[in-house]
Amino acid sequence: MRSVPTPFRLLVCATVLLALTSCDSDGGTSVKSQLLGTVHRDRLFTNDPDHPAPQNRTEGPIVLEHGKRFSIAMLENASARLEWSASDPQPAGYLKAVGTSTEDTSGNKHAVGGGYTLYFTFQGAKPGTARIVFTNYCGTHKNTGCYSPTLQNTVTYRVTVR
User: Fold this and answer.
1) CB distance 73 to 117 below 8 Å
2) Model-level pTM greater than 0.90?
3) Would the pLDDT of 46 be above 70?
4) Which of the residues 8, 92, 119, 152 could staple to 71 if both were Cys, CB 3.0 to 4.6 A apart?
C-alpha cells in the first residue's frame, strides 16, 4: 500500500483545523454565529464610586425577524459579584428561550478571579414585543455572602419581533 506524502497530510490537517476554528470571518456563517445569532453585549460598569452603575436599568429595544436567534452576553465573575440569571420572556409567546452557553474571557472560568461571558440565547417566536429581566444574584439575595446593596440588581431588555 502506498502512503500519502507528509506535505499533503499537513495541508489536509491545516485545512480541517482552519474550518473548525472559524471566527466569523466568513460573514457570520460559522457554527458559533448560527447557534448564538446576533450577539448583544451588555454594558460593563466599573466600581467607580463617583459614577456608580444604576441598580436597575432598561436596555433596548432589540429588533429581530420572526424565527431568528439572538443572544445577550453578560459578564459573569464571582470575584466581581456578577452572577446573572434570566427570567422567562414576558409576555409569553413572543420569544423562545433556546439556552445558555459560556466563553472564557480571562483564561479560565474556574480560576480564582477569572471571569467569563454567559450567553443567553433566544429566538423570535411570533411578532410582538417582550421583555427579559436579568437578575444579579449577588445584588438581590441578601442572605448570601456575596450580597452588596451597591451592586446592579436587574437589567431589563426590551425585544421586538417583526
Assistant:
1) yes
2) no
3) no
4) 119
